[in-house]
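Known limitations

Files may contain more than one protein. Parsers should not assume a single record per file. Below, a two-record file is shown to illustrate correct handling: read the sequence, read the token line, then continue until end of file.
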Amino acid sequence: MKVTAQNHDDVSALLTVTLEKSDYKEKVEKQLINYAKNAQVPGFRKGKVPLSMVKKQYEAGIAFEEINKQVSDALNNYVNENKLRLVGQPVPQPVNQLDYNAEQIEVGFEVGYEPEFTIDLAKYEAPHYKVEASDKEITKSIENMQRRFAEQVPQDKIGKDSYIALEISQVVEEDAEGEHHHPKNATITAENKEAFKLVKALKMDGSVKVSKETLASDEELAKELGFTKEEVEHLHHAEVEVKVKDFYALNLAELNQDLFDKVYGEGTITSEEELKDKVKSELDEYFQQNADVHYVNKVLEQVTEKEEVKLPENFLVKWLIFSNQNIQSEEQAKEILEAEKSQLRYQIIEGKLMTDNEIKLDYADVLAQAEQLVKNQLAIYGIHHLGDEEIQKYAVEMLKDQEQVRQISSEVAMAKLKDVILEKGGKKETKISHDEFLEELKK
């Protein structure tokens, strides 16, 4: 058994796997003998079925299965031994008829692979912002803590200090019996100007109807009521009903030891000054993470734009036609490839950076990231002091979902790549406020 390569160019080739009959004959015969020993055929005792009868019925299937296995193994071994980073999957050349009795069998595969190139990150430079939390942001974050543990105070009517719980339902026409759509729930304040204006004159259980056209034209109102643009477009009915389910004021929790303990655990924070310092450090860390990601994205944009990455375009056209039954012509495949070129180059560059910098994943990395996600989710609800053992239990449960494993693994890989780019890329260090940073992101 051997594999030979005939290069078309720097990034594509025809790989031919050649099998001798002797490569698979013995294994096929062993399987046939085993079948004969265990076959139950009417008229014959178990183990006494003639081998010739077993061969006639099973030899072709067993032979083709063994040939496919050996061809696949040979192809994979060749790719691994030659460290080829394939783009797409091998495309088998058409075979009219495979004769398993022939002395020699040849099977050809078209392959495309990534080009050889190097990336010097030091020659790419981008702004690296040092973002600090302002007093205003620290105060707002502390107020949010106070709201989480606030006391609800009933009100007689909606006012500017009200928190208003809404139920938003599609209005079903009389001739649409049987249709059911789950209502949306939203809680708004006077800061949600459009929604507040809509319901501020209503009483408890009062409602108002809003047309689909109004939601489509007033994106801010739709957003405040919990609708995305796509959801508005796909509403099944012409109107929605916005109903007031509750409204109340909040007595913010006092800034005292009880609140400090509820948020961060007993005795961790003992004064307002310590609280402000803690909140500032958390916000600074969060803002800096976003600034680091912004820097990395800017560097990757430059790398993708300036590095010459040759794609195996002729092969990719063949692969698209082979792998997607909805693609009916070469012209259609070329159009799809043209639309995907930028993303393909980006993926190749990302993979190259990971390979060259020996970025690898293990279970401990993925588990640690899952634990951090659990902590982040708990923090949203003001839970900061759950024990490590409990957090790990939730993380392990999360990793039973293969889609979660895939997504978290991708996040870990990107985090490691981020660290490499932060270390090796060129930086223009710049101090900036968070508001200025948000403006920069809008650009």
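...continuing to the second record:
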Amino acid sequence: MLRKSRNSLGSMTNAPGMAMISLSAIALGAAFGGYLPLIALWMEALDISFQKIGIVSGTAALGIVCSAYFSPRLAQKYGYVVTINFGLVLAAIMTVLFRYTENYVVWLLIRFLGGLGLGLHWVLTEAWLATIVSDHGRTRVMAIYATAISAGFAVGPLVIWLFGFATLTPFYLIGFFLLIAALPIYTLRDSEPKTQFTGGGSPLLLIRRAPTVASACIVAGGVDLALISLVPAMVARTPEAAPVLELTLVPAMALGTMLLQYPIAIMADRYGLRKVSMIIASTGLALCSLIPFFLGSVIIAMSIAFFGAGLVYGLYSIGLAMLSKRFTGGEIVAANAGFVIIFELANLMGPSIAGILLDINIRLGLPIFMIGIGFFYLVITWLRRDANPDD
């Protein structure tokens, strides 16, 4: 049975590009995992409000939305490798520049441009995977991709552990991670897929034809960045919180997403994407809503963050698997771009809404946000339960 499972996995992941894209995703995840808490902690030290921290963190989403719309056309004209690596170099430059100013408007501009660069990598590597793996293995392959990013997320905060957040060093190191992410992609320059794109990414296409997928995007995107960008600052401003949680909660979340993605994919293949998505959404969001009440206990807080974030992020992999069942050929690239656009719009709105709620009540703000977004997803999924019963 074990040998059969290994052979099955091997048949799904032997396509050219799978290994290199995953390696690049690890480096990209390390940059994300270190950068988001880094700027949150640095801005908190400058006495910036939760709302403004959330807005700055979420502004990159606008850049990613723009790049998601145009990335299919850019890849068509310049190729996957050139477009992806240009984006990574741009993001690396913006990462370093952020530390050289304390001007709020300039911060917003820098985060926007950095988002443009990151979006090119994100959309096109997922589109690349969608063109080289079989439909049978797509759920597990996307889970492996999400696991690679999560592994990087777990490593990224070590930069803050080692060098703090007040110096230039961590900003330069995270920029270096982004440049490292370009190297595996460059090795694939002779094996780019030849895809005929069907236009730019449109979230309306996804909302109209696959509203459950779109709602999974909203939940995963809104909760993901809200937790990563605001929880470290929430810990710093909670008197009874264990100080070590400022730098350990985000890695705990990353480890949860890294270790739970593949088991979730196996469950989804066995019991159905829709059914499993409802279970992990309700359970994961309930756990995340408990984080503010256990900040005095390192073990309990990290355990809740581990399972809560890991389960919620499973919606991302499941959403991509659902998407692959509704769209094929060149259309899947445009649909995936729409998926990323919706995810990033949620990234923009999630931290902003959660930040406002935390400014109002630091203890109840996060639970109210989690319960509200969870109710939204369960309602949409229940209403669409008969639309695609094969999910």
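Parsers that stop after the first record will miss the second one. For reference, the second record is described as follows. Residues 17-383 form a domain with the Growth Hormone; Chain: A; fold (CATH 1.20.1250.20).
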